[in-house]
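chain below, 327 aa
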Amino acid sequence: MEYIHDIFDSLLTDHIQPTVLAQIIHVDGSSYRREGTWMLLKEDGSKIGLISGGCLESDLRHRAERLFSTGEEEILKYDLSSEDDLGWGVGAGCNGVVSVLLRDIDDGFRKSLIFIKEQLNKMEPIFYIQSLIHFEQVMFFRADDIPLKFKNLFQNIKLFSEYARLEMIENEPFFCQILWPKPNLYIIGAGEDVRPLAHLAADTGYSVHILDWREGYCSKSFFPTAASLLIGEPEQLLKEISFNKLDSVIIMTHDFQRDHKILKCIQETQLFYIGILGSKKRTERLMGGDIPNWLHSPIGLKIGAEGPKEIAISIVAELIAARRKGT
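prediction:
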């Protein structure tokens, strides 16, 4: 889902240019990308997203040119398992059949996608259901509004589950997908080591918010990709934020007393992920004993990281792993 929010943002800002949406609706076997992958193709030749490792994009571009401003759609099947020179599988490293829904974004469909974006901005997941026979039937629901005939599909879904699949419902094929809001990542501390983390987290689909008490550190020049910069004492700023259960917090102040206040402030808050920089021994001192299950410490996957950039990679890797597990 890494490009889906970029696609929505593009539709909000570019209302005129003809565009075509490509969606992987089914994969039989293996492929570079899985069901639920989206790509936007624009008439000027630009695109947002990636459907394959590069082997399908040129053909999709060619086919999209026939769909611009037509209001039409088609389902394409690419056999990536062929090994001969005419097959799609040459150099693809795949061994499956990929079905792609290609459709022109007319005014009606554009309004539907913009409405979905508005709902995602409210930090609620959206259940997206597309008929593959009656293509004009595009349905989207909040969790509390799903009709009974679809409800059993979405039982016991974990947070950030990559749910996207082809389903037969009453003998009709539907493509069903959960669209998750863009997750917020609040990084407390704006030191030099935070800069690569903020940049990498933004690149991997987070809305990054920086909190720091030092105005000289917390600036747009250091954090150009940040969604917001909040200046003040962290424990006071935290009290003013309306957190969501999909939000994550990382503490990187390098200040023991401030970290103690921050942890006390957020320990009862329901968050998806809370991590703190520093050794296990330091965190035990902060907590006055054992480290609780809700707190990740030491933060980051154990890859032997050295220096701010490698540490940033290890932290973002742990964030991704947590999202994939839904815990």
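The chain has three domains: 4-106, 109-179, 184-325. The first strand starts at residue 19 and ends at 30.
thats it, cya
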